[in-house]
Amino acid sequence: MTVLRARPLETSAGSLPLGAARIPGTGFGVDLASAGYREDEYLVTGTATAWTYDADLRAVPADTDVPYTTRVLVRRPADPVRFNGVVQAEPLHPEYDTANTWRVLHPWIMRTGAAWVGITQEPRIAESMRTEFDPVRYGELSIPTPSLRYDIVADIVTALRTRAAGLWDEGPDIARAYLSGWSMTGSFCRVFLGEGFHERRRLPGGAAVFDGYVVGISSGGAAGAGYPGLSDDTGLPGMGDGRRTIGGHDAPVIELLSEVESETHGPVLRPDGDDPADRYRLYQVAGTSHDSTGPDQVNTNQEQYRRRGLPVPSRRIVEMRSDARLDFVARAVFSLLDRWVAEGQAPPHADRFVFDGERHGDAVSLARDEHGNVLGGIRTPWISTPVARYHPHSTPVPGACRPSPWMPTIEPAAMTWLAGNMTPFSAESLNARYPTAEDYLNRYRESCLALLAQGFLLWPEVEPLLVAAEQRALTLFPTC
């Protein structure tokens, strides 16, 4: 497994990277320049191992030294001196090569001086980029088989950390690198750990390529979605297989789940761990759904596809869309992980959700209070000081949901099953709970400050929550 060559790609108004940080003249994306950041894109050529399972479902090489060409996006401080030594790496999501870690973390990354690296690892999107999206820019892309993806991601980060192939040629060394993913790429991280890639892939001197992991909105109990296995054409470890449960490694692992994934996560639940060989936390965030990961317009990929006349999905729900922000909690969780690695300061434990025992297929319902809000978990301010019922699943507007070309057979009900909604309390219920707007705002503020003290919110996220609560109070309590 070797990175052989990295070639930078030129960016112009007429030729932007897929998933560019910003589409000029639109509301899509993030303005890097105002934060003192730059974006670079590379085509990277190397060789990797294709993996399969033997008769006992153990990972074994199927072929070695398979050539590939992928692309890598790097966002880092424009002034190398400002780089803080931390790289957040993510395997880009198979659907449009979207960067969900960037979507969740970009404010925290830029205010701390960290870098972000996104790596194309899915053959289908690489082929679409090569033949549909931009044959001129991406005509060399080639990922022959899905099972190369684990070594490709490790190859790229190894090259960055060792300054190979010109991928990281200026500024301070990378001190700490983290791997994270969300939904399908969260499951990528689970397989990376479960199949031994963390132990297998080492830097010169023996240190792990990745210093820690966040497995986001992925349930190990969700059949193929939670543990897709090594490749599309290999078997899946069964539901009772121990690889579905995060085991002990010489790097800390945090699982961060919404209510949706928690419904199927019961069979793989395990205790938190503080042993040096098994550092682990599970955080379940109350009042959140699979799609609570931040504003849609942060990622530019689908808009870029749409502007080229290529198909993109649409999804509308009958209910009021939830305003929950799992990403606000996630930024604090990543900060806790970095402190765990850099300073040895173990993060807090958190209460977990309670199951009510009612089974729906592979899912078990979560216990809820008299208003319909979940019990247990990290008590977000919109749940501890509620003005609405938050529910993790929604109903499709008839005729208004169009599936992605990557999942053309998915039904509208399945698309909106991942979307959260909220039902405002009645005026009578609000008045019974909060005598005045001031009472509501004081209690909401106390909830935010409690999470800040616990480490589950950072102050830059507390401020917009308080502003939103004040705006909400003007509507809910008109006499204020």
Automatic annotation (TrEMBL):
Organism superkingdom: Bacteria
Domain Alpha/beta hydrolase: 15-463
Protein name: Alpha/beta hydrolase domain-containing protein
Annotated organism of origin: Actinoallomurus iriomotensis
